[in-house]
Amino acid sequence: MTRLNSSASVEKKRQEILNSKDQKKLYVTICSGTACHASRSDEVFQAFVDEIERKGLREKVDIGRTGCHGFCERGTIVNVFPKDICYLQVKAEDVPEIVSKTLIENEIVERLLYEDSNGQKIIHENDIPFYKRQNRTVFGNNRLIDPQNIDSYIALGGYTALTKVLFEMTPEQVLEEVKKANLRGRGGGGFPAGIKWETTRNAPGEPKYVIVNADEGDPGAYMDRSLLEGNPHSVLEGLTIGAYAIGSHQGFIYVRQEYPIAVENLLVALEQAREYGLLGKNILGSGFDFDVKVHRGAGAFVSGESSALMTAIEGKAGEPRPKYIRTAVSGIWEKPSNLNNVETWATVPLIINKGAEWFSNIGTKGSKGTKIFSLVGKVNNTGLVEVPMGTTLRQVVYDIGGGIPKGKKFKAVQTGGPSGGVIPEEFLDLSIDFDELSNVGSMMGSGGMVVMDEDTCMVDTARYFLDFLAGESCGKCVPCREGIYQMLKILNRICQGEGREGDIELLEEISEVVKDFSLCALGRTAPNPVLSTIKYFRNEYEAHIYEKRCPAGVCKALISYYIDPEKCQGCTACLRNCPTGAITGGKGLVHIIDQEKCVKCGTCLEVCPPRFSAVTKLSGVSVPEPVPQGTKVIRKGDRKK
Amino acid sequence: MCGLTVKRIMARKKTKSAFVGIKMTSEQAELLDRLQRVLNSATKTEVLLKGLDLLGKLYPSTSIPPPWILLGEGETSPPVVTNRELAMLEAEARRYSTNVQQVRNKTKEVMKQMTQELSKTDRIVDKYKGDKSSLIQLLLELQRENHWLSEEMLKWVSQKMDIPLTQIYRVATFYKAFSLVPRGRHSISVCMGTACHVRGAPHLLDKVMETLKIRPGETTRDMRFSLETVNCLGCCALGPVMVVDGKYYSKPSTKEIEQIAASD
Prior knowledge:
The complex is a heterodimer.
Chain A: H1 9-20, E1 26-31, H2 34-38, H3 41-54, E2 61-66, E3 78-81, E4 85-87, H4 95-104, E5 114-115, E6 121-122, H5 129-132, H6 150-155, H7 160-168, H8 171-181, H9 193-202, E7 209-214, H10 223-230, H11 232-246, E8 250-255, H12 260-275, E9 291-296, H13 306-313, E10 337-341, H14 342-354, H15 356-360, E11 370-377, E12 383-388, H16 393-400, E13 410-415, E14 421-424, H17 434-439, E15 448-453, H18 458-472, H19 478-495, H20 503-517, H21 521-525, H22 528-546, E16 559-563, H23 573-577, E17 583-584, E18 592-593, H24 603-607, E19 615-619
Parallel strand pairs in A: 1-2, 7-8, 7-10, 8-9, 11-15
Antiparallel strand pairs in A: 1-3, 3-4, 5-6, 11-12, 13-14, 13-15, 16-19, 17-18
Chain B: H1 2-14, H2 26-41, H3 44-58, H4 84-127, H5 135-146, H6 151-161, H7 165-174, E1 186-191, H8 194-198, H9 201-212, E2 225-230, E3 241-244, E4 247-250, H10 254-262
Parallel strand pairs in B: 1-2
Antiparallel strand pairs in B: 1-3, 3-4
Helix pairs in contact in B: 2-3, 3-4, 4-6, 9-10
């Protein structure tokens, strides 16, 4: 690859790439993000390669991979250009049909298209309601870029922002632009990035470092991963621009070790950027030097905290330190270090290209621009969603997410991961905004949005998060180490049916100490799940403690499985599948669960045929006396279809 | 005990008359002479065996050998001894020599393994020569290569990188990615992230634990599978998710789990 070394060379290269591409040639892309990879996208890719070879179409069709498209519920996603046909949930067996019908005969395979609620088939990906209602400024290019090929990024206008910055702007001007745009950090803290950059720039000491925080520890959040896997150059470009503004010549990207594909694509991207002269010494001939090292995490949630992360980069155990002195002033090896989240860095080239004003026109007064959320849990359209700040939660969960599956009732949406809280139905019309979400007791966090329905127990949710945090706490400070553990003990007792009078008040009291006196944000935000679930779902706590009842039917110690003798038809399905042999009965006889042997696994409920629905979960009431063994079933006259 | 008996035998030889109940011919005396010469130059075990061999020739017998006499390769009848003490002596000596040989072989094997392991470790350590801040990266590679970090490996790293061993253990015990005990050939990870939790991950984990009969963090006795829980693999749309050696399984059924557990 020839080095690009002038202000005009990026644009020239872009024209070169566009001209060399035959826009009319058939081009098939297969989404290869981790979720689609888990849906066996590799097999689909190979199937395409084989089938195209078999039909002798190698000269006529190009095949490529892309990063995550975001509609992960319907992976593997395959696009056929130039017509821009979008096929969903493609399996390796579907490939021969796609090749013969679409590639050869130029026809569409209807059954693989998206079907909306009216039964209408949709051909183009961007028309699908899931995407249409989003504003995919940062994430949208994922579907068009081959992450292992820098040319596909340049073809879409990549690195023009860097060119502009290096040749037409001073570092101070870049700083001003980012400050004017009011870009707030997308990693959870929401701190204005421009101000952080300025602090680092003005801090005494050389060398200065810039860091990409790709630790993404929140369970259920995977936006950063998809950005890194699908469009690594957008992050690199943003990082280089930031380094120029701050006066740094060495960057670090800290990626958690659970993201091997992201690391691979990053390393490839770095190599290719270096070859093109977009990274390293004398970038684009401007005289600016900057290079990047990738540092892998080793499985510690707390290491995602900025001071902990910097300690980990130094090769030590990643524990946070008190931030009397900000890391922007004293970070890695006590030098000024600027740390930002992946998404924050990826937004920077857009601000430079389109202007701070464009950016600040999107969003609300306090929160500008768009944000990528991972919408997961009990929702129909699970995936990555990018919406402008100010969109309401209802729009995200229902219009884009498609609502709750199986017709269940919405209970709450949990934002901000283990540091956030639950937001109940009454606040569904809240606009998504850093401050608005904090005001209701939750927070934006890194963008995880977990939807919960009537079958989710709020006490169990609080217990789940505390369990996670107890394992991840570094243990350095007493409030976090002991406080979280004690709160967990109380919650465990409550879920076991041993809740006591005064437990809720005790939880609130401990929370206060942990919140105010923990060393780092892990401890300070640890009580949030507990406090917000108590605030909005106190009745569930009270039911667990006073009535020994779990309203959602989740806490095993508080539920019993019971077969209704009037509904049981004696089909023996549950008996055969019970792992502990707790069910007695026979064909045509009422089945009875021995409560002593039952381990509450729920298998009987799963396998009982829906037309009988004889198995129920009881909670808070004692199990009725079993009918005598050998009682015959009451045969239903006509079966409900 | 053996030494004492040989001494007694030698003492008896000297007194010429005194082999209790045993008459010696000049041939036999010659044999015993040879034994003495052998005594001066060989190991104790060899002497014992040789001695017994020679003594055996002094006491030919047609009686059936006692059961504690070990037959060697291709031997049809053992070096026959009628004296019970001698017989036990021989058995002891043989066992001793086999054990010594086994220990020698085992030591050779262990040394060979250790050298191989250390040279693998060396190759990786050399990549990061000198850079103490890349300790975590180095340990990650070692973990990937060997599936665990043994004490020898860490001691070696400590020496080569000039980092105190306590510091290395600090790092190795802080991060979840490192295992200080041997892991199975295949790793099974069940995702316990929030989205999977809400979609029934604990239930899935229960099924896996029941099938494999181990808990998270443990390895099956036959060293085939290690079970772990992880917090979010990032494919929440497919939850609950289980990964076996890098292959993802979405909402696996009990049958699928049993199939995987039964495979090698």
